[in-house]
Amino acid sequence: GENVEQHPSTLSVQEGDSAVIKCTYSDSASNYFPWYKQELGKRPQLIIDIRSNVGEKKDQRIAVTLNKTAKHFSLHITETQPEDSAVYFCAASIESGGSYIPTFGRGTSLIVHP
Amino acid sequence: SAVISQKPSRDICQRGTSLTIQCQVDSQVTMMFWYRQQPGQSLTLIATANQGSEATYESGFVIDKFPISRPNLTFSTLTVSNMSPEDSSIYLCSVDRDGSTDTQYFGPGTRLTVL
Q1: Distance between first and last Cα of chain A
Q2: Which residues of B touch A98 (CB under 8 A)?
Q3: Who's near B27: CB < 8 A, 6+ residues apart?
Q4: Residue A23, Cα to own-chain centre: how many angstroms?
Q5: Is the predicted pLDDT of residue A27 greater than 90, yes or no?
Q6: Any CB–CB contact under 8 A between B106 and chain A?
Q7: For labeling, which of A58, A60, B51, B65 is most exposed (least CB within 10 Å)?
Q8: What mean pLDDT do residues B59-79 have?
Q9: Tell me, what's the pLDDT at A95?
């Protein structure tokens, strides 16, 4: 089955700095890669996603890149703010029976210091 | 995205008992999914529930321990049976939005503590 590795497990930055979280996956059949943000005590919320036919996608301060050949994808957050502090999960999804089943990374705890 | 609710939001249970968690969606969806998130850990898929058929369980999860019902297109239940302290986790249901089946949206979760 799919295996997703996520690094780092903890990331501490100063407000205004950039943050980068990296993930690798093992199954070349994975073709959809969502990123979720989970604040303490809350549900995971989708923040950005990328499909395998796209190399990069940007939404305001958040961007995701995908390298299918190397099987890795990354989340970039620029101009970080304290409200960006949360756990971020990457996922690699494979289509199964009409739905995409994600395999999640272990998560990155991002701490943004004011 | 769909509006998803879960009941109960949290519970404290004694070992050996069972708890049924409900998941309600405000629109009809084909597939519903149940996840477990142990404290400080990632999300692990327990099973996929398709209306009108038996749930499909992931490796390491069995129907006797986690029976699932899916009586209609807006509702599902997950039962955690014969609980032990190791079952203490957050249990989340999720759906993929019809018309865009690649993204999963999560319910608020049920925080279960087993004593």
Answers
A1: 41
A2: 30-31, 101
A3: B2, B3, B74, B98
A4: 7
A5: yes
A6: yes
A7: A60
A8: 95
A9: 82
Are the beta carbons of B104 and A42 separated by less than 8 Å?
A: no
What residues of chain A lie within 8 A of the CB of B92, using their CB? 43-44
Q: Which residues contact B103 (CB under 8 A, 6 or more apart)?
A: A34, A46, A49, A100, B96, B97
Contact A26, A3 (CB under 8 A): yes
Q: A104: which 2 tokens?
A: 């999640």
Q: What is the SS3 assignment for A84?
A: helix
CA-to-CA dists, residue B86 to A25, A105, B80, B89, angstroms: 29, 21, 11, 8
The band of B5, judged by pLDDT with boundaries at 50, 70 and 90, is very high
Tokens of B21: 């968690």
Distance CA B83, CA B80 (A): 6
Q: Does residue B41 sit at the A interface (CB-CB below 8 Å)?
A: yes
How many angstroms separate the first and last alpha carbons of chain B?
A: 36
Asked if B96's CB is within 8 angstroms of A97's CB, the reply is: no
The number of beta carbons lying within 10 Å of the beta carbon of residue B7 is 14
